[in-house]
């Protein structure tokens, strides 16, 4: 099945399930990627506002043909902010809804998914999310009001995410601060020297995110760790997780002009 057909089928499934169980929302979703498919169990009872926000983008098909745009080995892999038009070979910003209320109740442990946000304040998350590759609680549970964890990867899903984290990254920050640590597939030193245009063959495409199980009790056997945040202590500055240039679809269209049409390879410089 082609990417667009697969996305359309997934969206139909997601819409049907959400319509059948609107009150419960969905608790298990599947990420369909070019690196493999994996499941994420959402904490809809613990972080209801955040899960509802995420599912609104899923139901709208906003994540169809999106891609991972940031990878920091041993830290996070981030996506949800940008999509790729395969017919036009163009990148675009995913339109963001209103920010969601911060719900920093759970800890940023390895294998969890959390909301990316800007440095402007705790409740600035919109469409972007990231997967924690390690125990990031010492930083992300406290920084900027704490990053909201709203689900966890199940099964062998982390093997796929770890494989994404092992890909080479390049620095495209001359075009956008969000692309300073951009993961690439099938991209060699020769491609870099030849300024090869980045296509769908190089990006970590998320073909779609679909709802698999809309039952309310799918997280009953999970035991997420509570946040380590101490409200009496100041925010931990540390590594900025999903903040800053990667947060909330905040990259302007002017920054993306260099990416559209010609691709991003002409502005690449080797990451040191």
- Give the H and E element order: HEEHEEEEEEEHEHEEHEH
Q: What's the domain count?
A: 1
Q: What's the helix count?
A: 6
Spatial ordering of strands, largest sheet = 3-13-1-2-10-8-9-5-4
Helix content: 10-25%
The fold-level CATH name is: Cyclophilin
Which sheet architecture does the biggest sheet show?
A: 9 strands, antiparallel
State the shape: globular
For CATH, the homologous superfamily is named as Cyclophilin-like
Query: What structural category arises from helix and sheet content?
Result: alpha+beta
Enzyme class: isomerase
Organism: Gilvimarinus japonicus
Protein name: Peptidyl-prolyl cis-trans isomerase
Function: PPIases accelerate the folding of proteins. It catalyzes the cis-trans isomerization of proline imidic peptide bonds in oligopeptides.
Ordered list of secondary-structure elements with their pairings:
Blueprint: H1 3-20, E1 28-33, E2 36-42, H2 48-60, E3 66-68, E4 70-72, E5 76-79, E6 82-85, E7 90-93, E8 112-115, E9 129-132, H3 137-140, E10 149-153, H4 157-165, E11 168-170, E12 182-184, H5 189-193, E13 204-213, H6 253-256
Antiparallel strand pairs: 1-2, 1-13, 2-10, 3-13, 4-5, 5-9, 6-7, 8-9, 8-10, 11-12
């Amino acid at each position: 099945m082609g990417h667009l057909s697969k996305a359309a089928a997934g969206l139909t499934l997601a819409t049907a399930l959400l319509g059948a169980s609107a009150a419960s929302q969905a608790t298990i979703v599947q990420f369909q990627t070019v690196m493999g498919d994996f499941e994420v169990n959402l904490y809809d009872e613990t972080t209801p506002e955040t899960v509802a926000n995420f599912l609104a983008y899923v139901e709208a098909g906003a994540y169809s043909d999106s891609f991972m745009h940031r990878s920091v080995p041993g830290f996070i892999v981030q996506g949800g902010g940008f999509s790729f038009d395969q017919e036009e070979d163009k990148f675009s910003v995913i339109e963001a809804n209103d920010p969601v209320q911060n719900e920093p109740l759970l800890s940023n442990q390895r294998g969890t998914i959390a909301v990316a946000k800007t440095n402007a304040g705790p409740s600035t998350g919109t469409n972007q999310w990231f997967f924690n590759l390690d125990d990031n609680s010492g930083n992300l549970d406290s920084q900027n009001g704490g990053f909201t964890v709203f689900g966890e990867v199940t099964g062998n899903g982390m093997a796929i995410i770890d494989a994404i984290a092992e890909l080479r990254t390049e620095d495209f920050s001359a075009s956008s601060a969000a692309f300073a640590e951009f993961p690439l597939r099938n991209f060699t030193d020769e491609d870099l020297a030849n300024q090869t245009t980045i296509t769908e063959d190089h990006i970590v495409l998320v073909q779609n995110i679909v709802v698999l199980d809309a039952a309310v009790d799918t997280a009953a056997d999970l035991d997420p760790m509570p946040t380590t945040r101490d409200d009496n202590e100041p925010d931990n500055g540390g590594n900025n997780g999903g903040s800053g240039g990667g947060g909330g679809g905040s990259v302007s269209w002017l920054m993306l002009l260099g990416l559209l049409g010609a691709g991003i390879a002409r502005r690449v410089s080797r990451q040191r």
